[in-house]
Amino acid sequence: MTLQPLTPVNCAGLLQPGCSLLQLDGELLLFGQKGWPKRSCPTGIFSIRLKSGEMKLRPITFSNDSCYLPPLRCPAVCRLDPYDGLPESYVIHGGRTPNNEISSSMYVLSVDSRGCNRKLTLRCQEKEVVGEVPSARYGHTLNVVQSRGKTAYALFGGRSYVPGVERTTENWNSVIDCPPQVFLFEFEFGCVSAHSLPELHEGQSFHLSIAREDCIYFIGGHSITSDSRPPRLFRLKIELLQGSPLLTCQAFDNGVSISSAIITRTGPMHKYIVLGGYKSESQKRMECSEVTLDEKGIHFEALEAPRWTADISNSRTWFGGSAGEGKALFAVPTEGRGSQSETHCLYKVSFQTQDEADGKEQDANQGCSQESTDFDDSPPLEDSEELYFGREPHELEDSGDEVSDKYNEDDEEDETQTGYWIKCCLGCQIDPNTWDPYYSTELHRPAMIFCSRGEEGHWVHAQCMELSESLLLKLSQGSKKYFCQDHGGLPYQEETPPRHNLSPKKTP
What we know:
- It holds the Pfam family RAG2_PHD.
- This protein is mainly β.
- It folds into 2 domains: about 1-360, Kelch-type beta propeller (Neuraminidase, 6 Propeller); about 375-500, no CATH class.
- It contains 4 helices and 32 strands.
- It has helices at about 310-315, 355-365, 400-405, 470-475; strands spanning about 1-10, 20-25, 25-30, 45-50, 55-60, 60, 75-80, 90-95, 105-115, 120-125, 130, 140-145, 150-155, 160, 175, 180-185, 190-195, 210, 215-220, 235-240, 245-250, 260-265, 270-275, 280, 285, 290-295, 300-305, 320, 325-335, 345-350, 450, 460.
- It starts with a strand and ends in a 33-residue tail after the last helix.
């Protein structure tokens, strides 16, 4: 178990309470923040890269058939593992926007493709449902249940604004607990039904929910009506019968008083670790617990907490999410320290043993053993050398990170020069409408190489030819011309520089 401080690189201002961490296609994604101004990330989804104690954010693009996904805070997020040929995806419902607007929409987020430079592209589709649709809310939970060969989603809890007929000038922005109903979604037919249970007699929000097969456990939560966090624990059993589902609820007396906690899974089995959260409005929960689900029920076990730093212990608030199996990422505000350039202190906590961490790191290194090639110290290319640009994806993974992860407001004017991006090769995957810089040279002029095939020729994006930025800069020196991959296979030099024969020495 380790606690590692992280240094945010020009991105801590984007981290705000209510953000969500997602894991898709092996990448850790940050969701729920406004995108960089005028950049191709209006939905606020960024890829998180942790390396050498630093955290960098990189904007994620969407496919052309995607819908608009607003930056949502505290939505209900449910992960759906791949099954029956369907890809891994996330179901997102509700949430609160930075403009304090509460959403009632449901979205399905999945992976669309990987570009030639290993750049991830996501697809977002809004799911339309009919029936007893839940009202707009945030701070609720959404879980997937499987029963009798069927799959459904169960939504519970949350809070929303006071109804419009009851809103006055004094309570216009006041929020209340949503009615304690359970909503079942069936995506196959797009239907949703509401169910009321006598055991769930009080609304709750910012609670924890864990599901296994046809059972869901609700842990803790906060109630506005009583302004308390009672140690609640409910088990909801859902049987998806023919016709109408059967819901039964059971209350236990060994719950945990907690709200807004972080929960992370520790492996393929149903074992989880709970950390963070609040016991009361002015008291954080500094303990950690291990939660196990099995055939007999749910089990809690106290777990040794990391050695919290003074910043964590003295802060009033903290927030974050799961960063993978047995890992979590959270932030605390830099309160009362004007010398700090960033607004939050970031930490990464890992509950894996050192052997497990070393084993996973070794496996990752074996799968990606070759580092990105550095051409800065390489000798000049001779005329007889072949130029091979079909580099492997892992060689391009970290190229250009030092610049593309940074935001400079002075560079925004260069993005309006879209005329450079009209002509390219047939296999170009760059959309000029959603273009964002990948090389540092693109901040001044597009990183392209000229194909001399034909009378006029045309420009080809260096990303389409899988060129690193260092190699692109080396090729751009001088007046050499090259063919692209669509015109003659590998790019090659059209004409070599003339050789200068030295005249023989003459004796005086």
